[in-house]
Structures are given as C-alpha cells and as structure tokens.
Amino acid sequence: MGLLTNPAKILIEHFPKCKFRLTTNVEIKYSSVNIKLEGYFTEDFENRPYCDPLHDYYRNSDHDISLCWNTEKLILLGGLKAKMLALEYASSSCIWIEKEGGVIARPHPNGEKFEAIAEALYPIMSEHF
Asked: What gap in Å lies between CA 103 and CA 95, rounded to an integer?
C-alpha cells in the first residue's frame, strides 16, 4: 500500500463514521512535509441526494486532519469536540497541545484514537521522508 492511500485508510479504521480524502495540498519544504486530509460523512444518510460519497454535500470540515512531518516528529492537527488540537508524536513520546499553545492531558474521547493513528503513520512517514 502506498503513501498516498495509507493515511486515509488508517484514519477510517479509527473513525469509521467518516471518510477521508487526501487532498492535492501536499507541501514539501526543506525538511518538512504537510499533508491535508478532508473529512466527509459516511453513507449513513437514508436519502442520499448525491451518489458520490465525496461530494461537497457530505463535506465535514470538523473532521479535517493535517499531518506534518519534520525531523523525526509527526504532528497531527485536527478538530476534536469543536477544539483545534495538535498531537506531537515522536518514536519515544507524545505531547498534546491546545490551540493557544499550552500542553494538555490526552483529550477524551478521541485522544487515544489520534495516538493510535500517529503510531501507525509514524513509520510510514519516516520511511518516505
């Protein structure tokens, strides 16, 4: 499985009620890489007005997630419970940071999911970048 399909599939494993689409916003600058994944609602709608599950009608920007890789550190940025949070993940540690920049405890209920996603993505990012 390639780099471009892995992130979305890993996210779906932990957030099964969402779909994720890797955007073309992959930025590579010096030693950092930024990848944005857009969130969408799944097909749980009873009356679906559009057959394309990635149609703008199903867009859910509250579930957008950005991956930032820089010098052996992976940062996941995303909205959890209407708050923008960041998880800094390295092979030996992880730190949660709130929007204002302060370090916080693992947020409930999705903090464990984000940490599992980071743990799964870290070796992929390390291998490719």
From this structure: 7
Q: Which one, of 105, 101, 104, 73, lies nearest residue 89 by Cα?
A: 73
SS3 at position 117: helix
- Assigned token pair, 121: 């993505």
Is the pLDDT at 82 greater than 70, yes or no? Answer: no
Is the distance from CB of 115 to CB of 74 less than 8 angstroms? no
Pair 54, 19: CB distance under 8 Å: yes
Q: Are 73 and 89 in contact (CB under 8 A)?
A: yes
pLDDT for residue 50: 84
Residue ranges covered by each domain of the chain? 6-128
**Positive or negative torsion for Cα 78, 80, 82, 83:** negative
The residue behind tokens 């007005």 is 49
Per-residue model confidence (pLDDT) at position 75: 92
